Amino acid sequence: MTVLEVLTAATDYLTKQGIESPRLNAEHLLAHVLGKKNRIELYLEFERPLGERERAPLRPLIRQRGEGRPLQHLLGNVEFLGYSFVTDARALIPRPETEHLVELLLEAGDFPRILDVGTGSGIIALSLALKRPLSAVTGCDISPEALALARENAARHGLAEKVEFLESDLLENIRGPVDLVVANLPYIPAGDIPGLSREVGHDPILALDGGADGLDLIRRLAAGAPRILAPSGILALEIGQDQSSSVCELLEAHNFRDISPRRDYQNIERFVFAKHG
Ligand SMILES: C[S@@+](CC[C@H](N)C(=O)[O-])C[C@H]1O[C@@H](n2cnc3c(N)ncnc32)[C@H](O)[C@@H]1O
Questions:
Q1: Which of 217, 220, 221 to mutate to test the pocket of ligand 1 (most atoms within 8 A of CB)?
Q2: Residue 6: is its pLDDT beyond 90?
């Protein structure tokens, strides 16, 4: 079979299994198996015959993708803001919305001291540290598994000594002061979790479950953040669809000011920024 024939067969299989963007998935997995830097390189060799030795490793990957295992777990890494990070079942797979959150923070200015709460794989803390080498960046999470992954990602980018990762239930073990608290905390209402896609079922439940209305952790963070924010420090939150007005109200109740919801690329109010003090 040629590269193109292998791709076509894998695409047909993934289509039958109800996988979204089947051709794109097949291209990523074949490029991965063949050790290509990116899937576009496959286009240069569509007619090349692939022997059994080259094709064999693809089969289990296509099968697992067909069963709903996320593409990012099969590839083992994800691109975030142009950097490559390891991703696996220990933490949430980074989402494009979160990349947008970091872009908005980079536009918002320089923050000498940054805290990323619920850091997961560490992508927010680490990409900010890479883009702002003069900032002191800390990430915290309640999950030791997520923190182990975040530390691996830090080492991968030469940031092991630079970015500190702490185990903490929200701000419990954090002293402050900091100029920016950024958090993409779990915000899915517990009752919605059983209806999520097969792929999301591979994210740790601890990364998803936001309690009855999805706001349990955001509520606690809004109450606790003023203790560690420097004067005029910023709290920047990623939130769920339809949570913007509730989140703005609860920030107001904790005396935040300049509360501003921001939209993502799908025009959804996905982030809220606010100042304190
Ligand atoms: C939605 S994930 C976000 C991960 C990462 N920041 C990202 O954007 O990809 C939420 C993270 O919050 C962590 N978390 C959940 N409850 C927490 C708590 N009480 N204190 C600290 N972190 C918590 C989870 O372990 C998970 O890593």
A1: 217
A2: yes
Greatest alpha-carbon pair distance for the chain in Å reads 66
Give the model's pLDDT for residue 277: 83
Q: Which CATH number fits domain 78-276: 3.30.530.20, 3.40.50.150, 3.40.50.970, 3.30.470.10?
A: 3.40.50.150
User: Is 90 exceeded by the pLDDT of residue 235?
Assistant: yes
Q: Where are the alpha helices (DSSP H) in the chain?
A: 3-16, 22-33, 52-55, 58-66, 71-75, 96-108, 123-131, 144-156, 216-228, 244-253
Q: For ligand 1, say whether the CB of 169 is within 6 Å of any of its atoms.
A: yes
Mean per-residue pLDDT, 166-170 = 98
Q: For residues 210 and 212, what is the distance between their CA atoms, to the nearest angstrom?
A: 7
* pLDDT for 257: 97
Q: What is the pLDDT of residues 86-130, one digit of tens each?
A: 999 999 999 999 999 999 999 999 999 999 999 999 999 999 999
Q: Return the CATH fold of 3-68.
A: Helicase, Ruva Protein; domain 3 (1.10.8)
Structure tokens at 165: 């990762």
Using a 6 Å cutoff on CB, does residue 120 contact ligand 1? yes
The kind and range of the H/E element at 72 are helix 71-75
Find the 186 Cα to ligand 1 centroid distance in Å. 6
d(CA 65, CA 95): 18
The finding on whether 207 has its CB within 6 A of some atom of ligand 1 is yes
Distance 60 CA to ligand 1 centre (A): 31
> Which residue is closest in CA terms to ligand 1's atom 27?
120
Helix axes 3-16, 22-33, angle to 10 degrees: 130
pLDDT value at residue 40 = 93
